[in-house]
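Possible regression after last week's pipeline update?

I re-ran a chain I had predicted before the update to compare outputs. Posting the input and the new output here so someone can diff against the archived version. Not blocking, just want to make sure nothing changed silently.
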Amino acid sequence: MGTLSPAGPVVTDVQWIRVVDSGAAGTVRRAAAGLGAELGLDEQRVGELSIVAAEITTNVYKHAGDGHVLLRSLRLDNAGGVEIVAYDSGPGMVDAIRSGDDGHSTAGTLGIGLGAISRLATRTDLYSMPGRGTVLTAQVWPARLRPGTPAEGLSRPMTGESVCGDAWAVRHERRLQLLVCDGLGHGPLAASAAAAAVDAFRHGPAGGPATVVEHLHGALGHTRGAAVAVAELDPGAGELRFAGLGNIAGHIVTGAGERRGLVTLPGIAGHQRRVVREYTYPLGGGDLVVMHSDGVTDKWRLADYPGLAAGHTPLVVATTLLRDAGVRRDDATVLVARAGP
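New output (post-update):
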């Protein structure tokens, strides 16, 4: 789950669907259509959403044979939208731009799928790398509504669990602030702790990261506790401020591809902590801030993905890292923010 206010929508993960056969397209299409109707999309937009959902899922199956699709609800003021996030580890595309042109196909079809997705969706982004697979995201909003966001993330439950004990959130008080939290353990009780952390973050008092982490610690005493980290971006001052308890990783990735780690302290918010400390780091206009739970290994380098960091949305960056560095034996969350244009 996540939110950005006032610059973007409230995001809620609804359903992960694994794509292993042709029937998955119908499953995703029906689920997306039902979600769109529930969120208030009109009949025409629901129909267009259905096409987008079916085409995305069909592409995953035809070209990769195995992959995953996530459906998410988006809410902004009184409007609702649907987001589809798809990834696979298939052969990828040599030329992702040309693959979006009508008539281009590598699977013996008419080749209209990616073109239709781009025309019908409000916003799309595609990153594909030969030998590594493809990530595709699409948002469908009511006509003429095109919200954007400088920070996006996603969470995936561990294999065998229906709920995720990780969560992320974003808010804008004085400045853009990011939260990643990992409820202790797995399953419903971990998810409850993570949800409590997100609620306390969204509705808590304004303050820097250390103040916010202290507030989270006090708010989670009735739960099993969580690892938490809060980052605050201040591009005007060229600074990032960061505070954390437990195994939440934070990194600044510079425009040149250099990765700098951020310091968190041992502890469990709600139960055990030292004095919370806030650290300040230099932040450049082209930098990315990447935060993730310990369900994502540190063995990733954005430099291994040509064009990803500079040319794609934070959500596509986060999804690519989750796909390749996430582990299935643990809940996993990645949150990415862009410091500037």
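Follow-up from reviewer: compared with the archived run. The CA atoms of residues 171 and 202 lie 7 Å apart. Marking as no regression found.
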